[in-house]
Design brief:
The protein has a domain of 124 residues: Beta Barrel (OB fold (Dihydrolipoamide Acetyltransferase, E2P)). It starts with a helix and ends with a helix. It is an alpha+beta fold. It is 37% helix and 26% strand. The protein has a 5-stranded mixed beta barrel. The protein has a two-stranded antiparallel sheet with strand order 1-2. Strands 6-9 form a two-stranded antiparallel sheet.
Length: 195
């Protein structure tokens, strides 16, 4: 039953996202160009919808957006044009803030220090997670890969279940060896085991 509710929630989030795209658009050429450059913007009568075709999903998109909120160590909210979008950082998993997992709040602060309030570039293939969050990689104002930096600082695990990018694994091994961040804990518990 819980799985069904999550699936329904996912679809509701996507419908709301699509509705927001059409209602938040201010009809200026700049906003329309911004959306259509990065996504397949289809016109359906008076409303526009962002859709991802199969060929689009294999190509990386690069969005310029502002980080307007940090929810936890691996989730931020971006403002793309006038559209707020929740973003799940790809390749990593951070300690949980809920339930007070050790380093959960520190991971949130680290992410905030790296990118909050900045205009950033987000690289994404246009896929959403089961919670309706866009999945992507953040590059901050200094062009630093924020996702990798979170692992290097010892604030995140390489999320091997969903990532085969071994550069994250190498950064995790270095952080473990240096005992930085969560690796200073003698017995760190991965978030997927904590949940």
């Amino acid at each position: 039953m819980g799985k069904l509710i999550k699936e329904i929630g996912k679809y509701i989030t996507i419908v709301i996202l699509l509705a927001l795209i059409s209602s938040c658009r201010d009809n200026t050429p700049k906003n329309e160009t911004l959306l259509s450059e990065n996504f397949n913007l289809k016109n359906h009568g008076k409303e526009n919808f962002v859709s991802f075709s199969e060929s689009d999903s294999t190509k990386m998109k690069h969005l310029q957006a502002k980080i307007i909120r940090i929810l936890d160590g691996d989730t931020a909210e971006i403002l793309y044009g006038q559209l707020p979008i929740k973003l799940r950082l790809e390749h990593i998993d951070c300690p949980e803030k809920r339930g007070k997992q050790p380093f959960g709040n520190r991971a949130k602060i680290a992410l905030s220090d790296l990118c909050f309030g900045q205009m950033v570039s987000v690289s994404s293939d246009g896929k959403f997670d089961r919670n309706g969050r866009l999945i992507g990689v953040i590059f901050n104002k200094d062009s630093l890969n924020v996702n990798k930096e979170m692992v290097r600082l010892g604030m995140a695990w390489h999320f091997k279940k969903y990532s085969d990018d071994m550069s994250y694994d190498a950064l995790e091994r270095e952080a473990r060896a240096a005992k930085v961040g969560l690796w200073s804990d003698p017995n760190p518990i991965a978030p997927w085991d904590y949940r």
